[in-house]
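Blinded run. Sample ID left blank on purpose so nobody reads anything into the name before looking at the predicted structure. Input follows.
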Amino acid sequence: MSSPTPTGPAPGAAPIAPPDEPRALRIEDWLTVLVMAALALITFANVLVRYFTNSSFAWTEEISVFLMIVLALVGGSAAVARDRQIRIEFFSESGSLKRRRALAQLGAAMVALLFALITVLGARVVWDDFRFGETSPGIGVPQWWYSIWLPVFSALITLRAVGHGLRSRRKRYPEGDSAGAPAP
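Blinded prediction complete.
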């Protein structure tokens, strides 16, 4: 009598990522979890304090806005790496294999170019914040503590877009593809 072969991951095992998904995406996934947890805790603490004391923590809005910006940048990085960015699929998914690859590479190059520009301009903003001693309006900490993350995460998105462009160049399509590409 033979035992049935398992069809999914073993109980308690980590879920298996799709084969073309970068393993380093765990960074973005964990950052998303940590930022969401921090947002929830900060907001919950502020609600409790406001409910029981009729006043609120002054710093919670400033920190929450900062964390939401970080969350948007981290989510953007994960979206680029997973090829989930916004596009018109009528154009990007139709046509020959050569055309689809070219559009995927063009899209990745445009995203990389945009976020490389944001990285450079964001670094200039950070330098100005540091040089002029700007402080945050709510709690008075140096503004560059907040603004440093724009060029850092923009550089990460640039690298993810370059990686996506390289992966789309090597991507293989199964038989039966509309372009008639041979199977690997």
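Unblinding after everyone has recorded impressions. The chain has six helices and no strands.
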